[in-house]
Amino acid sequence: MKILVTGGTGYIGSHTAVELQEKGYEVIIVDNLSNSSIEVLDNIEKITGVKPLFEQFDLTDPKRTAAFFKQNNDIRAIIHFAAFKAVGESVEKPLMYYRNNLISLVNILQGMIDNGIENIVFSSSCTVYGQPDKLPVSENSPIKKAWSPYGNTKQMSEEIITFTSDVNDIQAILLRYFNPIGAHESALIGELPIGVPNCLMPYITQTAIGIREYLRVWGDDYPTPDGTAIRDYIHVVDLAKAHVIAIERMIGQKGKQKVEVFNLGTGNGFSVMEVINSFERSTGVKLNYEIMGRRPGDVVEVWSDTEYANKELGWTAEKSLDEMTKSAWNWEKELEIKRKANNE
Ligand code: UD1
CA–CA separation, 28 vs 37, rounded Å? Predict the structure, then answer.
């Protein structure tokens, strides 16, 4: 059974391609490689024994995308990851985000309608909830005004899918991720930040390996037990597995509605300091860090209510925070070997 994974050479996409192939699905990846590397395909093959099918093009190109779907009308389901995701950059360049993230989605939905492809899983984010009034945050929590164009594209994409599904034979599962971190246990695939990372985990591992001087902890005066902000970190492999279950649910027609929404988190909130402590504990490496002021736009605390996903999907995130931080470190060490080999 053929599954299209857009953005399949990226961080979450590559882990999902692995999980799909391990379950016997045929994976076809479309990626423009704007934020990922072609070598990921070889590494997926090293893990699973199978190299996914691959086409490099930009899904914002309507003609190219239409031609692709015509040639591949045997696709049973799509997992759509391909999107820009840097919050700060989206504030600087809003139109780049709206153009890329929304037009690609419109082209994909058109391809689905024109070729009778009925199932799509969409990569959304807990950012749609903003700072929720009540914790843990369930799927019924209100959607708040977006804090960035990036977050706004996630909200708008969910709406575009829902309205399109209303009047077409399209089922969708919208997966709202909390904070994915960590890497595959083989250390063959992981997060590949280009330039200076914004996210916490790659910044920690790059500091520990010596690329960055010290981690800046953005704020220790939040109303939380240790004063640093709290997030629900989830291992990327746990997250990837939920996508396979979502695909199986749609293909098996087990959905309760045409469009379903699930939060994907662990249900545990950890502070920035707790992540640092976990990293030091799981790796034995000391981390340089300094406390700074708050980062504009950051919410204080957010973690997921996992009950609905646990019950309906029969899925639970299994990996501990220490497993997440340790696997992220193993991946950084692999990257360092490659950097040294390339004399970077
Ligand atoms: C943000 C977005 C989220 C998006 C994700 C991926 C918001 C509210 N959330 O998550 O939608 O999907 O990025 O790009 O915009 N931290 C430090 N020092 C650092 C980096 C981070 O202290 O160098 C802290 C942050 O202040 C935050 C926590 O670590 O408290 C996690 O930050 P980060 O990894 O950037 O993720 P979010 O901001 O939660």
Answer: 16
**CA neighbor of 311 nearest in space, from 71, 174, 139:** 139
How many angstroms is it from 75 CA to the middle of ligand 1? Answer: 34
In contact, 35 and 13? CB cutoff 8 Å: no
CB of 150 closer than 8 Å to CB of 127: yes
Tokens describing residue 268: 């545990």
Is 289 designated active site? no
User: How far, in Å, are 91, 155, 246, 338 from residue 151 at the CA level?
Assistant: 10, 6, 22, 33
Residues with CB under 6 A from ligand 1: 85, 87, 125, 127, 147-148, 151, 179, 198-200, 203, 215-218, 229, 231, 272, 295, 297-299
Average pLDDT rounded to a whole number, residues 123-152: 95
Map out the domains of the chain with their CATH numbers: 2-182+233-264 (3.40.50.720)
Helix H or strand E segment including 238 = helix 236-251
Task: Please compute Rg for the chain using Cα positions.
Answer: 19
| Catalytic choice (97, 129, 150, 203) | 150
Going from the Cα of 200 to the center of ligand 1, the distance in angstroms, rounded, reads 6
Q: What is the 3-state secondary structure (H, E, C) of 251-299?
A: HCCCCCCCEEEEEECCCCCEEHHHHHHHHHHHHCCCCCEEEECCCCCCC
pTM over cut 0.70: yes
pLDDT tens-digit series, residues 276-317: 999 999 999 999 999 999 998 899 999 999 999 999 999 999
